[in-house]
Amino acid sequence: MTDPMAAAQFVDTHCHFDFPPFSGNEFASLELAYAQGVRSIIVPTISAQRFQQVLELANRYSMLYAALGLHPLYIAQHREQDIDILAQALALKPNKLVAIGEIGLDLFMDDPQLERQISLLKAQLKLAKQYDLPVILHSRRSHDQLARELRHAAVPRCGVVHGFSGSLSQAQAFIKLGYFIGVGGTITYERAQKTRQVIAQLPLSALLLETDAPDMSLAGYQGQPNRPERVRQVFETLCQLRPESPAVIAEAILVNTDRLFGISA
Q1: pTM of the full predicted structure?
Q2: Residue 132 known to bind ligand
Q3: Residue 71 among known ligand-binding residues
Q4: 15, 41 Cβ separation under 8 angstroms
């Protein structure tokens, strides 16, 4: 009989595959991921300078899909014309483009420039509505502010709040707005009890899997670059936290991923 844990297939919905250790080593990295059941990977951008590179990666490798956006963590680097560059790229309707991202809010920085972050976010949410695309959202210490902006923007395709580590009520607020919750390596740390308990209680229909590789290292891999094949270990931890069977969890998350991004394993 087939072991459902071993047979599970995955989409890593958040991996910065345009960065080391993957850049220049793409084929071998994809082989490693495929061997662990990863069938597709979504690559979000952080800046306009990387749009073309990520689109070319997605066109070159069948497993890769692109998301284009301006990451709030790099607010000091973004230029006024970058929104126009994003709009021009979206207008071409690239074949492997599945979302606008990584976008959002970050209040963890020394100088967050919040007003400018919000302005940039609003502009990108407007583009998501215009081009009928979901969004991949970054949020650090900004869940309540982000939920407020999403409520006002009313993006039809909604999106995912990636790498979520907020409270149960904050997660429920995003889900009520139609957004998914990205489950990543944080849950592999036993000390992350709050996040583990939240993910255990959320409806399975609201969850997606991700690594945020090469960031967000899993427990046991501290100090090492994260990798997309480790989404399997995120899944295995999720199965330990949830009441459903591994087969049910794996199937539900694939259905969620396909519903949001139009990608199936």
Answers
A1: 0.97
A2: no
A3: no
A4: yes
